[in-house]
Design brief:
Blueprint: H1 4-34, E1 37-38, E2 47-48, H2 52-58, H3 61-92, H4 97-111, H5 114-124, H6 131-138, H7 153-178, H8 182-190, H9 195-206, H10 208-223, H11 227-233, H12 244-254, H13 258-283
Antiparallel strand pairs: 1-2
Length: 290
Amino acid sequence: MIEAKKIRPYVMITPALMIFVLFAIYPIGYMIYLSFNNWDLISPVKEFIGLNNFKDLLQDELFIQVIKNSIVYMVLTVSGTMLIGILLALFLNKDTRINRILQSVTFAPYIVSLVSVAFIWKWIMDTDYGLLNYFMNLIGLDSVNWLNDTNLALISVAIISIWKSLGYNALIILAGLKGVPKYIYEAAELDEAKPIKLFFKITLPMISPSLFFLAIMNIIASFKVFETIALVTGGGPMNSTNTLVFYIYEYGFRFNKIGYASAAGVILFAIIAILTVLYFKALGKKVHYR
C-alpha cells in the first residue's frame, strides 16, 4: 500500500496541474490538430488536409513578409529596450529623493492599459494633428508620416513598445545593480580601474542574470505583439507592420480560415521554441551567478 506521505504532494499539485493542462497544454494540442484540417469556424465538419496549410503558408509571399516584419520588430524592441533600460538604470542607481520619484514616473507607463497607450501614441504620431509633428514644426522641421510611411511605420510601432516596457526593464536592471556588492567596486577603485572598465568587467557580469531574464522575456513578448498593431496601424501601410499574431487573427477571425491560422500559430510556436533553446544554449553558460 502506498504511503500517504508519498501521495500528498501529488494531490496538492493536482488542481494547479489540471488548470495548466486545461489552459496551456490542451489549447496547444488542439491548435496542432486544427493545423492539419480545413475549417471555417462555422461548419461543424473539419476536413483533414494534412500538410496543405503549411505548404500554402510557405508559398505565401505575405506570410514571408510577416515573418520578416516580426524579426525586425523583435530586433528593434529587444535591443532598444535593453540598451536604453541599462542606461536608465545606471542613471537611477542613486538613492536620492529625485531618483525615487523618477523611478515611479518611469514605471508608470508599464501599468497603463496597452489600449490607452496605443490610442495616445496614435494621436501623438498623427501626421496632421500629432504632438510630435507639432514640435518638429516649431523647430523648423518638416512633418513626418510616422504611421503612414512603409519605411517608418514598423519603427514607430517599435518605439511605442519600447516606451511601454522601458520602466519594467529599467527597474529589473536597477534591482540587479543594487545587488552588486560595493566592496567589489571599492577594490577596483584601489586598482585605479576606469569607469568604462568597471562597467564591462564588473557591472555587466554581475547583472547578467537580470539581463538574461529580460532578454528572453522581451523576445517572446515581441513575437506576441497584437494590440499595438491592431489599434495603431492595422497591419498597414501595405502590410509593413503586419506581424505573426495579427496575421493569425486576421485569417482566423476575419477570413474564417481556422486551419490556416492554426498552422501559422504552430509555426509561431516553433519559432519561439527554437529561439528560446538557441538562446539558452548560446548564453546560458555565460551568465554569472554569485
